[in-house]
Amino acid sequence: MNRSGIICDLLTWLEERLDQPLTLDDVADRSGYSKWHLQRKFKETTGHVLGAYIRARRLSNAAMALRLTSRSLADIALQYHFESQQTFTRAFKKQFEQTPAFYRRSLRWNFYGIQPPIGRAGQTYAPAEIVVLQTLRLEGITRSYTCTLEQLSRYRAELRTQFWRTFLDEAQSSPPVVYGLCFSRPAVGKNGENEVFYTTAAEPAFLPVKGDNLHELMLSAGDYALFTYRGPAGGLQGFIMDLYGVCLPLMRMVRRDGYDIERFHRWPSSGNDDGGGEIHCDYLIPIMRQAAGEVMPAHGPAA
Asked: pTM, whole model, 2 decimals?
């Protein structure tokens, strides 16, 4: 394996072990290089200092945990192997220009400071289109579930298919456009878990029969970053994770409060019964628009 292949394999290995004890000796043993030689090759290949990169990725995962779970700062610091909560707070403030407590409570989620995984940061993603959505009345079914941050991607992918099958059966219709609205928050009374609300919905004009479980909801007007996914149904959740872990940080966007919107033009009504097949989905994330000539601040004020 050539040098770039060894470093690429090492990056994947590191990503799976950010919440485990790691020393430079451990990483060097994995690579087959001496510690000194590995650090030099890693910097030449990636442009990053190895130890600093590991810390930046750990802090980035900690930032996700702050936003999506109710874990205490002490628990998050311990999970990502900082010596103390104080050490964690100092490192976090240096990378994100705000304290962990401020980062957690703000209604605005600024992606400044998050270090994307190097292995995915170099991939090409379709640029976001900034759009304005008008107020839209929908009818749908809302469900909620709790899971750990580590389970979030798998749970959401599995339950999406189940929720859509139930909704379409209840609606007795196959609308040309269907919506999935997603919102997450730390689960009350369940340390380390988050509560996910997912609404399957369509415009009332395309629902000839209003089932007992359908309820009305209003989709608020506002600015959104629109990304488009076309591909296998099983790849949608990975696409969404890359939006949050790679695209939004690279674009220095600020997410405002509100639902993430999945706007399906194809699937699940045209997919296989198990939710497979090719899909076409617009994924819209509520954002704060940057005015012409304005430099977006490193972090927005708490609401």
From this structure: 0.83
